[in-house]
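Changelog-adjacent note: as of this version, every example in the card shows the full chain rather than a window. The one below runs 342 residues end to end.
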Amino acid sequence: MRHRESTLVLVAGGAGFLGSHLCDRLLAEGHEVVCLDHFGTGRRRNLRHLEREPRFDLVTHDVVEPLPARLRRQRFARIYNLACPASPPHYQADPEHTLLTSVLGTRHLLLAAEESGARLLQASTSEIYGDPEMHPQAEGYWGHVNPTGPRACYDEGKRAAETLCADYARAGRAAVRVARIFNTYGPRMRADDGRVVSNVICQALAGDDVTVYGDGSQTRSFCYVDDLIDGLHRLMEHPAEARDIGAVNLGNPVELTVSDLVRRVLALTGSTATVVNHPLPVDDPRRRRPDITRAGALLGWAPRVPLEQGLRATVMWFSDEAEDGPRAGRRPGLAAPAAVVA
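Full-length structure tokens:
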């Protein structure tokens, strides 16, 4: 899926977990990449290896504000919008800014796409389905979302962003792709993002009690970052008109309970940590699993990295990170791999 010649690509939120991996992918294909980030949750260390890359330009800017004039003058071929905090502790820390990032930020990037003739990919989320009454979740499901709860700034912001994208596409103002991203994990996750994978791994490595919200029976489906980035790229480069594509779920359809995930991480790290249960957060979904039929038929895409392989890579990354942190010396070694789960 390589382009025949280099193109100029804008990645909003490019210093984040997913954004930095996407920048790597695009640069590896020979493109010029402009990374836009205001470093609310993105990290400069995610891009440190790109500091001397001549085809990479880092612009510090908040997409809530209109894009800088010099960016509006550039002729982008592709715009990826990944500019929004995506974990509950981060997006709830400043809910107004989260909502405006999704709405105003998306509008500013759509305007840039319209002006430059670029194709735009909107990173939406499985959270638009809320606490779903349909299982698994297919793209035709409209969701079950609390519009005024503590998660609404993100859930409703992303839903409104999809509305903007659909309106621009219907009016012929921009070529748009919408990816609904389900739980994704891998290297460069933040230890403080409050997600179950990072929480459990970091607590296990540190020898702390492992926190499980609820009784652990709630389910999630975990997609490794390399697979997710491949899905985003395939969706962006699909030649069909946006109205013929619609939103596309990207995630791993293998569903497991949080308790099962905890057992796997503890076995992988060799940790004997105690599991401590806490009440479920408000509006936390009980079940989450994507129906990826559309992604398979349209893009020929499906996750390929087994959970065991992805978890091991993620544990190794957090383990290396911990060597320089205040908990250095407390981490247990890695145990022998458990059975591979596809």
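Structural remarks: The first helix runs from residue 17 to 28.
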